[in-house]
């Protein structure tokens, strides 16, 4: 089975639809494999397997902040630590990025992917929120 080198894991269907539309709008839909993990528990359980993909160059995780953000971050950080990563103690509100435990160079295409995701997340965060609407971090 062929693995993509750029994967985005999302917690659920709503996240998948939002990210799909952002990728389509930026002409990058075919540049990523988008995987709906059907809940945070499934996402956390599958994360170590996804991280071990031999040709993986970039992995993004989009998880709802519908529980306290620090608790969600601590869960993700614990999985990352067990997989050989060294995540920061607290997430960066603008998005947290970290180096891969194995040395890899970042190509111009990978950099463009990152810039599009960063821009898209900034746009999502700037949207007005109704009471009870999801918060994206």
Characterization of the model:
The mean pLDDT is 76. The chain is globular, with a radius of gyration of 15 Å. By secondary structure, the chain is mostly helical. 13% of the residues are buried. The protein starts with 5 loop residues before the first strand and ends in an 11-residue tail after the last helix. It has four helices and three strands. 42% of the residues lie in helices and 10% in strands. The protein has helices at 13-25, 40-51, 69-82, 108-126, and strands at residues 6-10, 33-36, 58-62.
- Class inferred from helices and paired strands: mainly alpha
Overall body shape: globular
Number of helices: 4
Order of helix and strand elements from N to C terminus:
EHEHEHH
Which ranges are low-confidence, i.e. pLDDT below 50, for 5 or more consecutive residues?
A: none
Sheet-strand content, in percent, reads 5-15%
Gap from first CA to last CA: 33 Å
Helix content: 40-55%
Note the main sheet: 3 strands, parallel
Radius of gyration: 15 Å
Strands in their spatial order, largest beta sheet: 2-1-3
Overall pLDDT: 76
- The overall number of domains is 1
Tally the beta strands. 3
Secondary-structure map:
Layout: E1 6-10, H1 13-25, E2 33-36, H2 40-51, E3 58-62, H3 69-82, H4 108-126
């Amino acid at each position: 089975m062929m693995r993509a080198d750029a994967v985005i894991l999302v917690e659920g269907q709503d996240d998948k639809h939002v990210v799909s539309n952002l990728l389509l709008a930026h002409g990058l839909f075919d540049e990523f494999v988008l995987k709906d993990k059907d809940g945070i528990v499934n996402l956390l359980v599958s994360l170590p397997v996804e991280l071990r993909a031999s040709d993986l160059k970039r992995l993004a995780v989009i998880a709802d902040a519908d529980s306290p953000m620090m608790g969600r971050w601590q869960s993700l950080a614990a999985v990352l630590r067990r997989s050989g990563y060294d995540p920061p103690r607290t997430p960066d509100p603008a998005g947290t990025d970290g180096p891969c435990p194995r040395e890899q160079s970042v190509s111009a295409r990978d950099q463009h992917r990152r810039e599009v995701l960063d821009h898209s997340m900034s746009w999502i965060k700037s949207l007005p929120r109704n009471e009870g609407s999801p918060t994206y971090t």
